[in-house]
Amino acid sequence: MSSQEQLIARAEFVRRFNRFYTRQIGVLHEHLLESEFSLTEVRILYELAHRDGLTTSDLCRELGLNAGYMSRVIAGFEKKGLVVKQRSETDARVSELALTALGRDTFEPLNVASRNEVMEMLDRLTDAEQQQLVDAMAQVNGLLGESSASYVLRDPGPGDMGWIVHKQAVLYAQEYGWNAEYEALVAEIVAKYIRDYDATSERCWIAERDGTPVGSVFVVRHDAQTAKLRLLYVDASARGMGIGHRLVDECLRFARSAGYKRMILWTNSVLTDARRIYEKAGFQLVEEESHHSFGKDLTGQIWARDL
Hints:
The chain is α+β, with helices and mostly antiparallel strands. The protein has 10 helices and 9 strands.
């Protein structure tokens, strides 16, 4: 199948999912349709209930609604005493919208009903299935650029090591065409870390955003004076957030506290994004050698820096 045919097939899958999800949302909101408000009107009330300083233009832009329709909805809300307009404190030319006390009292039962419908849907799933669904939705948000820009670094938990092997293998197969030899190498590195782990001299971090792992890195013992950085990974959905730089910085900080005097790492010249991170962190190229690995002709590199 050509790349164009793959793109068409993926587009059709997204369209099928959109139709499925639209039907699910329709079922969830059947009760809300029994109220005097349309689903779009409830969405507008939701935004006004949860955010201050919104204007009509803000709502049009963020909800993708026509300005004329939005003006009619807001006028209707004003007439019912649900919404008031007030001058912006920062720009007297701008009118901001706010829910009145009646507006909040009107919205709250709708909000509770909507939440209860979703909870009822989730309650049909096991705890594991619920988390799987939430994680999948978080991944969609991340890939489409709508998730939180924050993340946390944490210790690895159950399943994380398997995740690292999987994500590394998929990434380098998709982006660089590396074969299963690389997956075998990663699995060996991870297995050795688990089997021989020494908390005083080795460490692994998982970067997590919106409850989903998006990055990882290891520090392992090379010798008594030297730490080795291994398997730096940042998911495509989380690139540009500085996670790679943060993970490397944590490696350096840990290595110093563990008493190491030097840190090294092995990479390949084709991994330009990773090399830029290493250079910015103070690593210097000290050795390189051509080799044939993972089904490709590559140039292996050793980078190092003093601590």
